[in-house]
C-alpha cells in the first residue's frame, strides 16, 4: 500500500527499531541512502546497510539477515516485482520500498499488511482498480455445494436446471473477467519507466521533519541529475523537479545574495546554474570535453574527418584559439572564460545545437573545489562500475558511497579521472562501431554486438556503463544514418560479460525521439523470447530490460525477439 | 648456556685442585657471557609479559584459543592474576558497581557510531538480545560500547564522514 504520511507511518515506526537497508547499485540509490543515513544518525536509529546489485544478491542477503530484523527498507529495488513471492518473508516482517522503477507491481500496491510503498501517489502511476484484478474466491464455492436433499422430483428437476443455468452464467462471466484482467495487466506492465528520484523523496521526508541540511539537498540534486544523465526521465519532468529543488536551494543558500551578511568564501554553497552541457569540462580541457560529450560528438559527427573539421570551425567561430582550448580548463585565459557560456551557446545555435545549456546546480566548498552536479554523477558512477580486482561488487559500492561525503575529496577526484577514461573509451568504441558498421538493422530493431577483443571491453560489463554506451551509440547512429526508418528503431546491445562462463549481457534501449517518454518495452519482450526458445537467461538486474544470456543461445533468442516484435 | 656452564665448572675445579690460575680469565669471560645470556632471556620473557598484559586490554578477559596455544602455563597463571587484580581495581572505583576502564580508550564523541565490516565475522549480539550478521562491506550503526572491542581488533572500521 502507498504510505500517505511519510513521517507518521514510516519514520516514527522505524525510529525505535533496528532496520535493515537494502540499497541498489546506482547513484540515485546511493544519494537516497546517504540522506537516510544522515537522518538515522541524527536520531540514533540502529541500522545495517547491505549493498545489493541484483535479485540474487537481494535474496541471499535477505535469507541471511531475516532472523535478526523485522523492518526492512529497500531503496531502488523491489517495487516492480511481487516482493512477497520472491523473498518469502515471515508474517511480521514489514517492508518499506522506495523505488523509482515503474510500473509498481499490483500485489505490492494492494497488500496492506506487509508492504509499504514510499512513493508519492501523484506520480502518474495509473494503477488498475482493485476489483479489476482481484476477486474473492468465495463465490465459486457455492456452485457445487448445493446438495439437493430429498423433495418432490419435479421441484428437484427445475431446481437442478436453474442451478445448471446459473453455473454456466457464472463460468462465462468468470472467463470474461479473466480475459479483461489479462488485458489490463498486460497494458499496465508492458512498458517500464522511472518515477521521481528516491533521493528527492528522502529529502522531502527530511524537509517535512525540518531536519534538512544543505548536504542533503546536494545529494537530492545529484540523485535527480543521475536520472537525467541516464535518460531515465523525460525532459519535462527534469525541468519540473529542478524547479522544486531550486526553491529549496534558494531557501538554504540565500545568504550569498545579501551583500552585508554573506558567508565566508569557503563555506559550502549550492547555486543554480544555467551551464553548458559538456561533461566534466571544468576538470578537463575544453577540447577533450567537446570530443567526449555525446551531445556534441554526435552532432559534429566526430568519428569522421569531416566532423573534426567542423569542430575546428566551431572553435574558430566561438573565438577560442586551439592552444587555449587544449589545455586544462582552469589554466585557460580569464578573458576567454568570462563570457564562455554565452559565446559557446551562440555559436552552437548556428551549428544546429539548440540545447547547449541546461539547468543544473553547482556546489562550492573550500577555496578551490567547485563541482557541477553532473560531474559528481559521472565520478560516482565510474567509481561504482570500475572493474575490480577481487570480483566483489561491494568494495566499489563502499568507495562510491564514501566519495559522496565532502570529507573524501580524494576519492571524488579519483572518480573524476576514472570518468574521463570511461567517457573516452565510450566515444572510441562508438567511433569504431560506426566506422565498421557494426550496428545492423534486424527489422523491428537495431542490433549491435561488441566482440571479445574490443579494447576497454572490461569497462562495459556493468549495466550502467553499458547503458550509457548503448544510448550514446543510438544517438550517434541516428545522426550518422541517412535511412529515415532506421532513425526510429530501438536498439538491442550485446556485450560479453564473463569469458569463463560464456555469458553476454543483453540490453534493450527504446528509440531515440525528441519527445520520447522513456518507456521501455524490452523487459517483457526479453522474458517472452527467453521462454519461447528455452534460452538460458538470467534476469538478475533490477531493470528488467537488462539480462544475461549464454552466448550459444544468442542467435535463437534474437530470432525469437524479431518474430515477437514484428 | 649449559655447555658454557659445564666448561666453567670443570675449569673451576681444575683451578681449585690443580692450582692453574691462568684459567681464571677464561672462567670470568664465560661467566660474563652466562650473565649476558641470562639477561637476554629474562628481557625476552619480560617483553612477553608486557604483551600479554596488553592483550587483556585489547581482547578482554577471554583470550582466543590461538593465543592461548602459544602461552606457557606460567604465563596463563600470570595472566589470570593480572586479570584478577585489574578486576579488583575496577570494582573499587566508581561507587557500587565499579567502572570498566577498558572501555572508551579515547574520549567518545557520540553515543552511536557508524562502523564498516572489514572481514566476515559472523553473528554479533546486540543489547536487546537480537544479533547482527557482520559480513564484509556491510555498514552498521551501533552503540559505541558494543563495537569498541571489534574496532580495536580490526574487524570493524569506524567510518568518519
TrEMBL record, chain A:
Start and end residues of each stretch annotated as Disordered: 136-160
Molecular function (Gene Ontology), one example: DNA replication origin binding
Localization per record: Nucleus
Main location: nucleus
Domain of life: Eukaryota
Single GO biological process annotation from the record: DNA replication initiation
One GO term describing the cellular component: DNA replication preinitiation complex
Entries under InterPro entries matching the protein: CDC45 (IPR003874)
Keyword annotations of the record: Cell cycle, Cell division, DNA replication, Nucleus
Matches recorded under PANTHER family: CDC45-RELATED PROTEIN, CELL DIVISION CONTROL PROTEIN 45 HOMOLOG
Protein family per UniProt: Belongs to the CDC45 family.
Protein name, entry field: Cell division control protein 45 homolog
Source organism of the structure: Zalophus californianus (California sealion)
Taxonomic classification: Eukaryota, Metazoa, Chordata, Craniata, Vertebrata
Gene (name only): CDC45
From TrEMBL, chain B:
Domain GINS subunit: from-to ranges: 12-93
Single GO cellular component term: GINS complex
Keywords, alphabetical: Chromosome, DNA replication, Nucleus
Keyword Cell membrane: no
GO terms (BP aspect): DNA strand elongation involved in mitotic DNA replication
Boundaries of every DNA replication complex GINS protein PSF1 C-terminal domain copy: 109-160
InterPro entries: GINS_A, GINS_bundle-like_dom_sf, GINS_Psf1, PSF1_C
SUPFAM superfamilies assigned: GINS helical bundle-like
Localization of this protein: Chromosome; Nucleus
Pfam family, one: PSF1_C
Domain of life: Eukaryota
Subunit structure: Component of the GINS complex which is a heterotetramer of GINS1, GINS2, GINS3 and GINS4. Forms a stable subcomplex with GINS4. GINS complex interacts with DNA primase in vitro. Component of the CMG helicase complex, a hexameric ring of related MCM2-7 subunits stabilized by CDC45 and the tetrameric GINS complex.
Family recorded in the similarity comment: Belongs to the GINS1/PSF1 family.
Function: Required for correct functioning of the GINS complex, a complex that plays an essential role in the initiation of DNA replication, and progression of DNA replication forks. GINS complex is a core component of CDC45-MCM-GINS (CMG) helicase, the molecular machine that unwinds template DNA during replication, and around which the replisome is built.
Name assigned to this protein: DNA replication complex GINS protein PSF1
Native source species: Zalophus californianus
Annotated gene: GINS1
